[in-house]
Design goal:
The chain has a single domain, classed as NAD(P)-binding Rossmann-like Domain (Rossmann fold, 3-Layer(aba) Sandwich), CATH 3.40.50.720. The chain is of the alpha/beta class. Strands 3-2-1-4-5-6-9 form a seven-stranded parallel beta sheet, with helices on both faces. The protein has a two-stranded parallel ribbon with strand order 7-8. The termini are far apart. It is built from nine helices and nine strands. The longest helix has 29 residues. α4 links the parallel β4 and β5. α1 packs across α7.
Length: 272
């Protein structure tokens, strides 16, 4: 791992620091820009170092903040510990953690090798929990901090064939966020579950076609920058859950009150 060519012994800037995973594109890159716009230095984590450095070159002069690049593959169980160790070595006290990295595996459970499912679970379950486990105590010791876990609108919807892991993982992230927020409620550390719906990102391409890579009308899609903007504001307010977009919020309300069988039928028909 390397930073953005800034020696580790250079003192901090005094600005708050946000760590964003999956920062090379999509919602992660949008979060990086949003935090920088609001005066945060950044630690950007993703596999694609070239994309991270390109984003750093864009953000630093645009917002006058410092951007550190930490290439890492969160499918490696040791990566969260290595990332936090690198942050500590640079003496960067984290004020915010955005657990955004993730992807879906297309098809049904038996259609892909177990190794691919294992990596998906490592990236989308183990890594965010491990990073929160490592970062939250230091935030709590300082009496302030923000953790944003990027879940999904699908966390509120009935699961269906072809979404066996994805829906389950996103529901886990929502429940984990609520439970962790309850644990930290007196610490000054706020945990927010961001649950976007269809968002224009590279997510579908990276997954090779996912449970979300279906034909949907244009009005259902949101821009990644707007999702990040609403997520940032929700976190700063201390909201437990943020569902960006009024249409998505209406969908959550609809499925909350629909009979479960009807909800499953609607999801099955939408995915067919």
């Amino acid at each position: 791992m390397t930073n953005s060519d800034i020696p580790a012994d250079i003192p901090g800037t005094g600005r708050p620091v946000a760590l964003v995973t999956g920062a090379s594109a999509g919602i992660g890159a949008a979060f990086a820009r949003e935090f920088a716009r609001n005066g945060f230095d950044l630690v950007l984590v993703a596999r694609r170092e070239d994309r991270l450095r390109a984003l750093a070159r864009e953000i630093e002069p645009a917002h006058g903040v410092r951007v550190h690049v930490l290439p890492a593959d969160l499918a490696d169980p040791g990566a969260p510990q290595q990332v936090i160790a690198a942050v500590r070595e640079m003496s960067l006290p984290l004020a915010a953690l955005v657990n955004n990295a993730g992807y879906g595996v297309p098809g049904e459970l038996g259609d892909s090798d177990w190794a691919r499912h294992r990596d998906c679970l490592q990236v989308m379950v183990d890594a965010p929990v491990h990073l929160a486990y490592l970062a939250a105590p230091e935030m709590a010791e300082r009496g302030q901090g923000f953790i944003i876990n990027v879940a999904s609108l699908s966390a509120f919807l009935p699961p269906h064939a072809g979404g066996t892991l994805y829906y389950s993982v996103k529901a886990f992230l929502l429940k984990f966020s609520l439970a962790h927020a309850a644990e930290l409620r007196r610490s000054g550390v706020h945990v927010t579950a961001l649950c976007p719906g269809f968002t224009r990102t590279e997510f579908q391409t990276a997954a090779g076609g996912t449970v979300e890579a279906v034909t949907m009308p244009d009005f259902l899609w949101m821009d990644a920058a707007e999702v990040a903007r609403q997520g940032y504001r929700a976190a700063m307010r201390g909201d437990l859950v943020c569902v960006p977009g009024w249409i998505n919020r209406m969908i959550v309300l609809l499925f909350k009150y629909l009979p479960e069988g009807v909800g499953r039928w609607i999801i099955r028909m939408a995915g067919s």
